[in-house]
Each structure stands twice: as C-alpha cells, then as structure tokens.
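ok posting inputs for the iron/sulfur cluster job
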Amino acid sequence: MGIEAAIPTDNFLTTQLRHVVNWGRRSSLWPMPFATACCGIELMATASSRYDIARFGMERMSFSPRQADLLIVAGRISVKMLPVLQRIYEQMTEPKWVISMGACASTGGVFDTYATVQGVDQFLPVDVYVPGCPPRPEMLLEGVMAIQRYIETEGMPPMNGGKRAPLGVVVEPTHAVNPQPVGLTQS
Ligand code: SF4
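and the output
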C-alpha cells in the first residue's frame, strides 16, 4: 500500500509546529499575583464567576514563582518590598511576562513619597500597563489578551542586545469618567 493510500481523507488537519506551541503558550499563562493593596481586590474579582479568568486558561493563580510565567503587580510597592518583588520575578519560569496593574504600580499613584516606588518599570520589564485606580477586571483581562495576542504571533518575549525588552503596551480605559460628585441636586 502506498503512503497516500494510508493517509485518511478526513478527520485530520495540518499546521505548523510553531502555531501549536504558541497556542499552548498563550492558552496556559499562569499568573503570579503580587497584590499589595486595593487593586488586588479587582484582581481577585477577575477570577470570580462574573469575569472568569479561567476562560483564558489562567485560573491557576500560582503562589510559587517557579511555576508561574505572568507576574501581575497590583498595588503600591514600597522600596523595602522591592527586593522581594525582584527576587520573585527572577525565580519565575522563562519565557515570562509582567503586567503593571493600576496607577500605584505604574507610577506610585498618589503616594509621591520617598518610600514608594514611583513605577515598577524602573526595575522590571513591564509588558502591559493597565491604567486606573483601580482598573476594572475587564481592563486587566484586556491586558492579558494583549500579551496573548503577542505570544500568538511572536511566541517569545522581545530581546534587545541579549537583554529582555519590555513590550510597553498601554491598555485603553474602557469607561468614561463622570464628574464628581454625582447625583446631587443644586439648591
Ligand atoms: S491604584 Fe488606586 S486602587 Fe490601585 S492600589 Fe493604588 S490606590 Fe489602590
């Protein structure tokens, strides 16, 4: 029997190994939550039934950096805490990704003090910035999907001269801000 005759004529498909590997990578990001403040509550809500981060293959929040590849920094980082965050990042599995969630993680937020890190991107290669105080869960999911889209096409994180280069994607806010206070009647 020839090889052609042995190949079934239905129930199979062909693809490239690169596509399959990237599909597996983007469908199994394992987050390492580093939640220090109120943004952490929105991060928890992202795992709840309403937002259901499990739809993206990410329900397995890891509290062991060696079994995680997506660091989500949610909340303000003090200078004293920074070495711990850096060590966790270094212990994570390659290829790894970083999301900076909320104003505090990205810029220090309202905590313009010598004791608060004024943006974790000064110390870590941040791939996605999720703006807000706090950002809504939808926005965090948008940030995750930005990384997934990148993995799908490129696979591995960008490098620059042998050093990890951050993606530097900024998620657009998904809502318009209302002037405050609202619902008060003028006398
Ligand atoms: S950005 Fe706002 S909600 Fe998030 S940790 Fe800072 S103060 Fe809290």
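notes: The first strand starts at residue 31 and ends at 35. The mean pLDDT is 90.
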